[in-house]
Amino acid sequence: MAEQRGLSRRRALLGAAGLAGAGAATLASCSDDGSKPPAGAPRDVVAFHGPQQAGVSTAAQDRLAFAAFDVSAGVTRDELRDLLRIWTDAASRMAAGEPVSDVESAPQSPPRDTGEALGLSAANLTITFGVGPSLFDDRFGLSARRPAALADIPAMPRDELEPDRGGGDLCIQACADDPQVAFHAVRNLRRLAQGTAVLRWFQLGFGRTSTTSSAQQTPRNLMGFKDGTNNIKREDTKSLATHVWVGPDTDQAWMRGGTYVVTRRIRMLLEAWDRDFLADQEDVFGRRKDTGAPLGAETEFDPVPLAAKGEDGAQVIPADAHIRLAAPATNGGITLLRRGYSYTDGVDQQTGQLDAGLFFIAFQRDPRTGFVPVQRRLAQSDALNEYIRHTSSALFAVPPGVSATGGDYWARGLFA
Ligand SMILES: C=CC1=C(C)c2cc3[nH]c(cc4nc(cc5[nH]c(cc1n2)c(C)c5CCC(=O)O)C(CCC(=O)O)=C4C)c(C)c3C=C
Ligand SMILES: [Fe+2]
User: Fold this and answer.
1) Which end of the chain has the lower number of beta carbons within 10 A, N or C?
2) Where are the stretches annotated Disordered (predicted)?
């Protein structure tokens, strides 16, 4: 079928009624952490609308589908804005557990929703949207709107980045407790973008590697260690305000209340790791493998005894241990909200080894004073470096949340 470009085609995919905005009333009564909806609210639904986008400080779900898009050549600023309106409407519907359109499909045209999530619950789906530095070139007249914080992540020592897996004009992070629900969200947004934006890269993740709520148990990463212990929790609104949400001091008002996300695909050299002795593995992280307790402490959430020394006078937490080099206490207070996922993309055909690791995701109010200095330090001397390779990098500005009223849409302020 010849591809028709532009809004009229996407309106046809959605159906006119599908543009009306979904489930706002239902969602308005719903808790935004996906764990304790008020009585009578639909189960497994995380509120889409609100001052901040869901999928940042809301409870981390089990599955990830993360996609980056490039806007197609010749697309105008108005067409880009139309896409964001349509995406926002479709995302709000899917987050409510509804199909992308409530218009019945006609037998002689493609179904309006691809269908694989029909009958499934919303599975706490969150869909989070961001814009990359490349969107602010000369194509859309947005260059004066680029926040200083949206500066490309500089090259780091040891980087082995694959350009096709990084960067992008736009991003969609879909997280859910059902992989099919997360996949369905990205697939349908990609479909609605036909003629306006193309997929640049796509990463699936399984198994969260963080906790973002104190109600959650700490999960384990593919190296077998508890991951996410010392993360910002959503209950700690003071830390979120200080370290994650963009404040009034921003140079771009449209980003106030938003945040910035850095993604890194970090491959783990699991065959080498699995041959390493337990004591060495624990020295690499500075924590016990079984309990997650810091070395020199008793239980997982004990304070990390960075100053402790053994009888031999050596530091109990080694100088090159990951948690020493990443800790806010040794980085001038820099604190990230980590929300990453384990991934596997099968076998590396060149080596026959597993292509698996951590799809690292971190939110912060300014990457120049967040991820960048911490990663620079880790890249220089982290003991973990022997067992990992950074293979992709991307940065996106995540605008504030969308209001349920007034025809609001993702990044509306960017076009004001
Ligand atoms: C630039 C930031 C970070 C990268 C990149 C990173 C990669 C990475 N981390 C683990 C596993 C663990 N990380 C842990 C703690 C931890 N990591 C970072 C930052 C980066 N990690 C921070 C800020 C912290 C918290 C430090 C602290 O305050 O104590 C832990 C310990 C448990 C925890 O607190 O979460 C583990 C385990 C891997 C496997 C990895 C790359 C593949
Ligand atoms: Fe880490």
Assistant:
1) N
2) 96-117
